[in-house]
Design brief:
alpha+beta; Rossmann fold; 555 residues; Porin; 11 helices; 2 domains; 14-stranded antiparallel barrel; 23 strands
């Protein structure tokens, strides 16, 4: 039996060893140089080059150098303008791009047909290791790109994707205007002209709805992060750190959330933001949160974020409702203020998956004007940690992310009968947040299902929410969203259900790269003070974010 097991393990290792030993070839592409008197064909070299790139990355053993990085460097050293590659320039470019191979070519308009040629230079030696050419009409652009990609991959002994082979074997002529529009979109992306790029890509998609390249470029222009947050977390950044692995530009953000009554706008509203506990006893629980920070991509598949987080919980208890409504009365007030710094890191090891992890340290301060405070045990410092995972399909029309959080905070247990502390504490609940987002209608319509769990492992209290919601972009600069929220509280063998809802809008100032988000929410969540009681919350959240302030695209 042991002998058979050893033979089995040996066979498995023998099968996996070549895969483990196989290194990915790093390939850079220079845009094909076009020779044509027709102005509408001016940018088709960019389009064909990107189509070749899309087919190349389908091979699991090839890594393509990011276009933004190679365009910048190629323009600086003016490489690829001539038919023959200069070995010194190839070596120089290879060092800058850290590429193993560099491909380039040209296209000559023969009136009705184009003669396309393409070559591959090995960066280390400067030698041309592969060259091929084909004569075709522009309508056969998919065949041309797949032909070159297939031939190139075979030359470097890399596998060719089945879909690439199918495009070569089953030549399908399409509308050449789809290539023209796609090529103009690539040029617009190079110039950071997002509006033109989106228009041309939409035109290309209408003419060629199954184009992989068009779908990939549309995904570049739309970051699938719909804004369905209802309240900032007190000890965690508001966004899953896994998103940092796929961010394309840097971002500065400022977020603020609060219960508008009674602390912000005046007296308490009946049955909102306060609860009755027995005859003539009332509790008000309010929260103010603020987050400010900066996130940036570091390399092609990593990102970093630093956040300053402030949270203040304010509690009031009175024996008359009139005293509770008096926001200047402080003789029965308690609370906690936390301020700290969080650092998060995200990494996308492969295209569909991104991982994230982060932590924060916080200084705590209490305000205790008895008999209710301080509610949070002691001053000093506390900590938090969160980890996340994200999955997205090729065009980001489906995104799922999950995040887990734990912190070192503890909360004093409150006795509702006496309006005093019991002298015991309980830890902050564990956090689990899951979000599924689907995009439709060329990413103008989003459907979302958000589910959040918190669990107090000491008192065995569970609280969960489920929010189905939708967002519609009416214009590139304006969206509206709305959702329902159901909540469940399980405590001490009893179960309580609650309902709520949210609505909001986003205004985008495209020229500034700025988003202004606003959400207004009514929800029922567990009372901070009274175990087993759902509390009515009415709150708002405002978020300002600036994209591409210093880093316009990934390096």
């Amino acid at each position: 039996m042991k002998g058979r097991m050893c033979i089995f393990l040996l066979l498995v290792c023998s099968a996996l060893l070549p895969l483990a030993a196989q290194e990915k070839a790093r390939v850079a592409l220079d845009d094909i140089v076009v020779q044509s008197a027709q102005p509408q064909f001016k940018f088709i070299g960019k389009g064909i080059t990107e189509l070749i790139g899309v087919e190349l990355v389908k091979s699991q053993t090839v890594t393509l150098v990011d276009r933004e990085k190679r365009v910048k460097l190629l323009s600086e050293i003016e490489f690829g303008a001539s038919e023959a590659a200069d070995s010194a320039k190839a070596a120089q470019l290879g060092k800058l791009l850290q590429a193993d191979y560099l491909g380039f070519g040209d296209a000559i308009d023969m009136g009705g047909k184009f003669i396309f040629s393409f070559k591959l230079v090995k960066v280390e030696t400067g030698d041309v290791v592969w060259a091929d050419k084909v004569s075709e009409s522009l309508g056969n652009y998919d065949y041309v790109a797949s032909f070159f990609a297939s031939s190139l991959l075979k030359a470097i002994k890399a596998p060719v994707a089945a879909t690439t082979v199918a495009k070569v074997e089953q030549k399908v002529e399409k509308n050449e205007q789809a290539l023209v529009s796609f090529s103009k979109a690539v040029e617009a992306v190079d110039k950071k002209d997002t509006a033109t790029a989106k228009t041309e890509l939409q035109n290309a998609q209408k003419l060629d709805p199954k184009s992989d390249a068009v779908a990939a470029y549309l995904a570049k222009l739309v970051t699938n992060t719909t804004k369905f947050k209802v309240l900032l977390d007190r000890l965690y950044p508001s966004v899953n750190p896994a998103f940092l692995g796929i961010m394309r530009t840097d971002m500065t953000f400022l977020s603020f959330s609060a219960c508008p009554v009674p602390l912000i706008f005046g007296p308490a509203v009946e049955n909102v933001n306060y609860t009755t506990i027995g005859t003539g006893k009332y509790i008000n629980e309010s929260f103010i949160g603020m987050q400010d920070g900066y996130a940036l991509p570091i390399g092609p598949n990593m990102g970093l974020r630093i956040s300053i987080i402030y949270g203040n919980s304010d509690f009031r208890g009175e024996t008359t409702i009139s005293d509770l409504k008096n926001t200047n009365k402080n003789d029965s007030r308690g609370g906690r203020g936390d301020i700290g710094v969080a650092l998060d890191f995200g990494w996308s090891p492969i295209q569909p998956i991104s991982l994230g992890i982060g932590g924060g340290v916080f200084l705590r301060g209490t305000q205790d004007t008895s008999p209710i405070g301080p509610f949070y045990k002691g001053d000093g410092a506390t900590w938090s940690m969160n980890a996340g995972l994200l999955y997205r399909n090729a065009d980001e029309s489906l995104v799922f992310d999950t995040r887990f959080g734990v912190d070192g905070e503890s909360v004093d247990v409150f006795d509702a009968a006496t309006l005093k502390l019991t002298g015991t504490t309980t830890p902050d609940p564990l956090l689990l947040e899951n979000t599924l987002t689907l995009a439709f209608n060329e990413k103008h319509t989003f459907l979302i299902l958000k589910q959040i769990d918190s669990f107090d492992y000491k008192t065995l209290v569970y609280y969960g929410t489920l929010m189905p919601a939708a967002e519609q972009f009416f214009f590139d600069w304006l969206s509206a969203r709305a959702g329902l929220e159901g909540s469940l509280l399980a405590s001490g063998g009893s179960t309580t259900f609650g309902l709520g809802g949210m609505c909001g809008a986003t205004i985008r100032i495209l020229d500034w790269g700025m988003d202004i988000d606003f959400n207004l929410t009514y929800r029922q969540r567990p009372s901070y003070l009274i175990p087993g009681r759902l509390y009515n919350d009415f709150m708002f959240l405002v978020n300002l974010s600036w994209n591409g302030m210093f880093v316009k695209s990934r390096g």
